Predict the structure.
Amino acid sequence: MADQASKPEPEVTLDLLSAVEANDQHSQRSLAQDLGIALGLTNAYVKRCVKRGWIKASQAPPNRYAYYLTPKGFSEKSRLTARYLRSSFSFYRRARNELDELFEEAAKSGHRRVALAGRSELAEIAVLCAGQHPVEITAVIDTGNEPSFLGLPVVSDVNSVSGVDGIILTDTRAGQETYEKMVASEQRIPVYAPKMLRVQTGRARVDS
C-alpha cells in the first residue's frame, strides 16, 4: 500500500474523489483503508469535500452513509488529475507503458485504425507509441482551432471520423467528460482509456 500520509494534500484529495467515484458504498473506515491514512484524517478530508460541494453524503440505514461525487466533484477530480499528470516526474514512463498496453489490446481485438480523443502531451506520446504496434492513428478528436496535430487531421466531433474502429482517450484535462462523449456517439466505437486518467465507466452522476 502506498504511503498516502506522505503525499501532498491535493493528491490525497484526488485519491479520495477517485475512490468515491469508483464505489459509492464506501464507509469512512473502508475509505481510510483504501487511502492508507488514519480514520480521523479520512473523516476530515470527507467533511472538507462535502463542505466544498464535491461529495454528497446520503444516509443509508443502519447508521451508514453512501457517498457520491457531485458535478463539482467531477470537475475538481478532472482538475486535480490534470495537475497531477503535469507534475508527475514519471509521467512519460507511465504513459508509454499504459499506451503500449492499450495499443496491444486494441490490435488483438481487431481495432487497428484508431483516433485519439484529446490533443495533449499524452497524445504526443501515443503517436510515438503507435509506431511500435500494428495500429494506425488516423485522426485526433479535439475542439481546438488547429487543423492538424503532428501531421494528423483534427476533427471536432467523433461522428466526423470515418473508417475508425477504436478510440484512444488522451484528454488530460477533461478525461471523464470526453470519455462519456465518445461512448455516447452513434458510431459505438470502442474507447480505450489509460488508467492514469482515472476514468470511471458506467457511473451515473449526481445532479446536486
